[in-house]
Design a protein that fits this description.
Length: about 170
């Protein structure tokens, strides 16, 4: 049996993946997704930004961020995932304070060490957040984006918050 998890990439991709239902195989599958399939790296401790979701990110050994193959995927801020968890928490976790980096994996919550599948409502939150962010980027192609990066982040966060319910802790 397998459970469904959600992966948000730094390229704005949102996709569902299947991982084994428990045990070491599940942990390894989550690690591979969060570390973009690379052998090096491990899972950081899980984070909880929503009462129905567990957030998993990769953690890398010192010096790996000097390798351009890693830097391109794993050391890039994941703006979409950061905006989504900011909306869920109802606070700004992004610009200037905290970013999620690389691919971010979301699973459901389970009492044991294993994870459950992510609830359909949380998957829809991610899809809506992606759509809002892409629509904002499209508008910025027609009309120039704000020059100030902090203002860009505020607008991304506002776009995501307009479609994702806040305060679901």
């Amino acid at each position: 049996m397998e459970v469904s998890v959600l992966v948000i990439g730094t390229d704005l991709s949102v996709r569902q993946e299947q991982v084994p239902d428990g045990g070491a195989e599940q942990h390894e599958a989550l690690r591979r997704l969060a570390c973009a399939g690379r052998e090096a790296g491990k899972l950081a401790s899980p984070s909880f930004y929503h009462r129905q979701a567990v957030t998993w990110v990769g953690q890398f050994e010192a010096g790996l961020d000097d390798d351009p193959r890693w830097r391109d995927v794993l050391c890039r801020p994941n703006v979409l995932a950061t905006a989504l968890v900011s909306a869920w928490r109802g606070v700004d976790l992004g610009f200037g304070s905290y970013w999620l980096y690389g691919p971010v994996v979301f699973s459901g919550v389970q009492a044991e060490a294993d994870v459950a599948g992510l609830a359909a409502d949380r998957v829809q939150d991610a899809v809506k957040a992606q759509r809002a962010y892409v629509e904002l980027l499209e508008r910025w192609r027609l009309d120039a984006a704000p020059a100030d990066q902090a203002e860009q982040w505020r607008r991304v966060l506002a776009a995501v918050r307009s479609v994702v319910p806040a305060g679901a802790r």
